[in-house]
Amino acid sequence: MAKNKIDTDFRKYVKLFWVFTFSLPFVFFIILFLVRTGVFGDLPSTEEIVNPKSYLATEILSTDGQQLGTFFKENRIHVEYSDLPTHLIQALIATEDERFLEHAGIDFRSLGRALSTLGSNGGGSTITQQLAKLMFTQDPARGFMVRVVQKLKEWVIAVQIERRYTKQEIITMYLNKFDFLYQAVGIHSASSVYFGKLPADLNIEEAAMLIGMCKNPSYYNPAREKRFELSLSRRNTVLNQMERNEYFSKASSDSLKALPLLLNFNPQGHDKGLAPHLRENIRAYMKNWIIKNPQVTGENYNLYTDGLKIYTSIDSRIQLSAEKAVKKHMKNLQRVFFKQIKNRKAGPFYFPEDRSYPEGQKILYRAMRQTQRYKNLKRSQISEKEILKVFMSPIKMNIFSHEGDVDTLLSPLDSIQYYKSIYQTGLISIEPQTGFIKAWVGGVDFKHFKYDAVKQGRRQVGSTFKPFVYAAAIADKKYSPCMEVPNIQTCIDSGQFGLQKAWCPKNSGDKYGGVLTLKQAIAGSVNTVTTFLMKQIGPGPVSKMAKALGITSRIPVVPSIALGTVDLSIYELVGAYTAFGNHGLYTEPIVVVRIEDKNGVILEDFIPKTREVFSPEVAFTMVNLLQGVTQSGTGIRLRHSGGSYRENVVTDYPYNFTNPIAGKTGTTQNNSDGWFIGMVPNLVTGVWTGCQDRSAHFGTTEFGQGATTALPIWAIYMKDLYAQPEVGIRQDDFDHPNGPVTIPLDCDSYLAQGKEMNERRSEYN
Fold first, then answer.
1. pLDDT per residue over 87-135, tens digit each?
2. So what's the architecture of 424-747 in CATH?
3. Cβ distance 581 to 681 under 8 Å?
């Protein structure tokens, strides 16, 4: 009797088992049907699956094909299947979905394994299911049943994706959509962020590391020190999977696994990457361009989602050399400046006599009242005394340093003084023959100093304006660089050129005597000779010439402009100098050369505007004049082969340049601004240095002059460029005009001839 009861119970359990087994697929398909019909929530429409919403970043590209940066909602650049290396695709399939090429969206074999082992041997999601999740699941589900429904939805979407796309298209979509962290959405951005490469250039072990991140990018994040070994182990797991799927041999696998994990980590962001100040300038430019250039539909392009391609004239190699030079010298210059102001009562501020401290305090309090903290406190009806107490109380803050950001305790008032102590700089390089901007450095650090010194900033240009006076005089009078002028204090009388009183500028150090050729005078930046030339031609022609050379800032028509009392941007100044190196043709500087849509359709090509300002002969004469600056004048240290400078303020000295260089230094009143414009046959570069506040500066010309603060950046930069012959920066002579040059340039012959003529006159008399 007991035996029969056991048999009956067993048969009952067997019956229940088979009922459950046969009914499970039926129940499954009912649930799946309910999911498909939207009972458990909406599914994407056929239109959404066929044309999924896609955010594509706008790329900014250099002339040598490198990505300078992106504007993005998602930092994603679309990559075609043909651009994906075979081993990257193999790594993905081997690791994430071995039967990808066989199933139709759901791999029931992998699913069964996942269910039987509760996921301990891997999940059952196919690449297509993962793509469905990436494309149409906004937030991860919480709770078992909700997750089950979400998974069923992904199955339905995966099957529809498989029906509408090829396997190649699915792989391409997946790799374009996956988020690899650090603003790297998609394989293009990931390759750039982690290895500084295009996807097509990834080697096997690099591809394996990126595919390894697909399991969990945060957990297998190679950029975090604590996760580095996990990422390395995961990479090797991918290589094992590739070996298992017979993509290469065990010997090859062992060799690859023995290789170290080498990153070239370049995190993306608007504060990072090459030329951030330029990219911000392009962003502003593109906002206006988009308004003026709508799509065929009438809608405006979206700079952050429409995948535009902005091709620039920037050469990434030249840009990198410029940024390295700026960083190297400014770090050293800042060290020297901090040392100089350490014992100053007024810190960075310097005034004549004993006014430094009270005047410096006025500057700090004025800056304090412009801060948001002050305005918020003022709104709270707090007294001025209490506000000052707040500003003098130390708090935790993060501040800029050339060694990297520093967390410190500092009072807000001290932080204002600290930032006013930071020496700033700007650099721009332009190819004179084309107007193409090749490098643009807007400051020492974009994160902390958004203000662009190249185009936004306007500072007094000092002696760098003198060449325009010389050019106007030579164009009008055909003066030779060898013409001699007495080095005596020269006055322009009251009433002349509208002056109310006489103008009698002095030379630096009040040094006079003898005679100087124009070439010697501009080389030594002698004020008296520039004043003599201004007296001959007047300020009108000089101002007119400056305007013709692209200077848009206000230039008052007064004699004092001869000594550079006007405020100009580096962009304007260097743009004007390009005419000297381009046979007298001014070419408007240009940085955006072409804009394309996401499909490569050209939306606009940009052609520089040009105009002739003076003759090729005058241009060649000016180049000859400016070569004297580096041969025997204020830029002579470029030629030095030895010696030293106190406190090593001149970085990387000596420079030992032997090639033809034309240039001009500039130092403004009180050493507030230091300039150097350097020219070689196919590159004109301008460098400015100075503090944010004009009252903050070195106390002596030895340290504050342009030859000390700005010229070294040019020297370091050019030495680096010359070490890269593939960049193509010339070291030969400046181009000679096609026509004759009638203006005498050989000063030995010119002066000897003049001496002989004088002797003949004496004999005749």
1. 999 999 999 988 888 888 777 676 655 555 444 455 568 898 888 888 7
2. 3-Layer(aba) Sandwich (3.40)
3. yes
